[in-house]
Amino acid sequence: MAAPEFKIPRPHLGEPYLLTPGPLTTSYVVKQAMLRDWGSWDDDFRGMTRELRARLLDLLGAGKEAFDCVPMQGSGTFSVEAMLGSFIPRNGKVLVLANGAYGKRTAQTLEYLGRAHVVLDKGDYLPPRGAEVAKILADDPAITHVVAIHCETSSGILNPVEEISEVTYAAGRKLLIDSMSAFGAIELKVADIRYEALVSSANKCIEGVPGFGFIIARKTELEAAKGNSHSLSLDVHAQWAHMNKTEQWRFTPPTHVVAAFLVALRAHEAEGGVAGRGARYTRNRDVMVAGMRDLGFETLLKDRWLSPIIVTFFCPSDDNFAFDRFYELMKDKGFIIYPGKLTVVDSFRVGCIGQMDEHVMRQVVAAAKEALAEMGVANAAPPARALEERAILAA
Ligand SMILES: *Cc1c(COP(=O)(O)O)cnc(C)c1O
Question: Do 75 and 188 belong to one domain?
Fold first, then answer.
């Protein structure tokens, strides 16, 4: 494979890097693509929608012909809700695999939709494992679908979706994947892992701006989804059927966002596709985590479960450390970090995705070092309690 032509430009002078899991730092050319208006029914825009759908499907690799891509207006959550409401029949029952905020949101969505469900809640950071999923499915024959979160962005854990897929299909059930923060950087090739549908959005690993999500689903599931949805605007079958007939979105599309996304998709290909993008994010993570550990910071997760998407760090135990001040100091140095979402101990998160490379990550570590010095924090080591928490992860 030819070396991808790809260079990380610096964002505008004074514009901080977003070390967040979307919206994230986008390239200048992606932003520039939004400086033009498009007629939503015009041939040119219809061609853009066609290209967008085809390019996203290409990421599935061999066997993609059995799938189709349906873009959906709104943020990622709208597409998750659309997927759940459209593919789970009203008499279906769902097993939700939760280990953080997004798994919980899926359960909450099913509550709204009135779909029967049970939740395997693993807490803040333990992965749902194949054996326990298999047992739940064996004990409850009413369960028709399993919903898994690919990368649970609230802790950054990369859940073992292959293992989950195997036991789901061995038990004759169907898998839906929220791959919002992973798709485009972590492979989900249909030749390697079986699933009925996945969902992601414009402003995560493809590095577009926010404004729509997309559902990629098996055509047989799209056909079967007719009449399932509780919602007019979130009906995936209706959007799909209309798009296939007219190449138009049913309701006003986010035209500028689509234009920007196409530029982002072409850059994704130029970088070497999913493998190339994943390699850069992995390098970002490795450089950043190594540097932060040198400063005394500890990650919530052991290396095995660390995603190349976002990493959770424990806050230092030093009395001089205050997250709000750390945040402001980091922002002054050009980096927006992200508060943590753990329930037991204080934490913060640093994203590895977006238009950033390892050189930027080294600057992030240097900025953290300076910030600690300015706060008078001699060592970034977490409280013993945090490490005890983490020891539970040893499995
Ligand atoms: C970002 C994200 C979503 C969607 O969030 P929105 O704020 O609605 O875009 C859903 N699931 C996961 C795992 C995510 O990372």
Answer: yes
